[in-house]
Amino acid sequence: MDALFNFISNSSFSSLQTHKITTSLPFRTSNSLQLSSKLKSLSPVSLKSPVLNNRVLDKRVLKCVSNDEGLETSSDDGVRRKNLAVFVSGGGSNFRAVHQATVKGDVHGRFVVLVTNKHDCGGANYARENGIPVIIYPGTKGEPEGLSSSELVVALSKYNIDYILLAGYLKLIPSELIRAYPNSILNIHPSLLPAFGGKGYYGTKVHKAVIASGARYSGPTIHFVDEHYDTGRILAQRIVPVLANDTVEELASRVLRQEHKMYAEVAAAICEERVFWREDGVPIIQSKANPNVFS
């Protein structure tokens, strides 16, 4: 069965995307110097504080950035510990999983701020319990303290964010933020993109659609974020079988367990600067155990 999964992972699903170069993953090379000349490193983004129309930031923004504790950096084998932001709309189980991995030292990064569109969601409450500041975005009638898109960029820049992880955040990411953090925003989706993705496909709706389609396999996808829902470059996927008598809840639970594991692994890779870009623009992850192996 494992051999079947590997075949599907490396063949069938990769064929859903059309690229200039059709190199299958994982691939190996015996010449790391030759490989490095073909790959572009994923460099963390560090922002300077932008100015908004030459005006002073209002109290809502200042409140968001008033806590500067824990932002100093440290090093481990020459790699700086990365500052992470997370966006959530609900319970934030993926956020919790990655946060626990940072606490254990499995991920060489720290969550320094959480952004949510629901101030009382489970993910926001968990952040507060762990001393992580919470920012409300966007501002609505229900969330009058929420920031605008430009204010959000300013607020995040104060935390020297390297990467942004979306963990069940249901709002479209503003273009201002994507431009400020190019190739530095990741999202996790509960299906094998590009299948069952896009606007309206989230949570149990995804699993319901997968089962109804008759698909035999599903699983989570981690991808970079662009200005549309679920269309950014795919970084990692993990196959989960869809059983003949699966309920939505059973499939969702099976996929979620893999989400937690995979997001922590990918977070570790980006924090250790092991993500590279293939010549055709596809992001790949370098193995920690064997630098000549990518997936």
Automatic annotation (TrEMBL):
Q: Where on the tree of life does the source sit, at the highest rank?
A: Eukaryota
Instruction: Tell me which UniProt keywords the record has, alphabetically.
Output: Chloroplast, Plastid, Purine biosynthesis, Transferase, Transit peptide
Q: What is its EC number?
A: 2.1.2.2
Q: Which CDD domains match?
A: FMT_core_GART
Which cellular components does GO assign to this protein?
Answer: chloroplast
Q: Catalytic activity, per the record?
A: N(1)-(5-phospho-beta-D-ribosyl)glycinamide + (6R)-10-formyltetrahydrofolate = N(2)-formyl-N(1)-(5-phospho-beta-D-ribosyl)glycinamide + (6S)-5,6,7,8-tetrahydrofolate + H(+)
Nucleotide-binding: is it a keyword of this entry?
Answer: no
Q: Which InterPro entries match?
A: Formyl_transf_N (IPR002376), Formyl_transf_N_sf (IPR036477), GART (IPR004607), GART_AS (IPR001555)
Q: Which GO terms describe its biological process?
A: 'de novo' IMP biosynthetic process
An example Pfam family from this entry, by short name, is Formyl_trans_N
Q: In which pathway does it act?
A: Purine metabolism; IMP biosynthesis via de novo pathway; N(2)-formyl-N(1)-(5-phospho-D-ribosyl)glycinamide from N(1)-(5-phospho-D-ribosyl)glycinamide (10-formyl THF route): step 1/1
Q: Where in the cell is it found?
A: Plastid, Chloroplast
EC category: transferase
User: What positions does the domain Formyl transferase N-terminal occupy?
Assistant: 82-266
What's the family? Belongs to the GART family.
In terms of NCBIfam families, this protein maps to: PurN
- PANTHER family the record matches: PHOSPHORIBOSYLGLYCINAMIDE FORMYLTRANSFERASE
**Protein name in UniProt:** Phosphoribosylglycinamide formyltransferase, chloroplastic
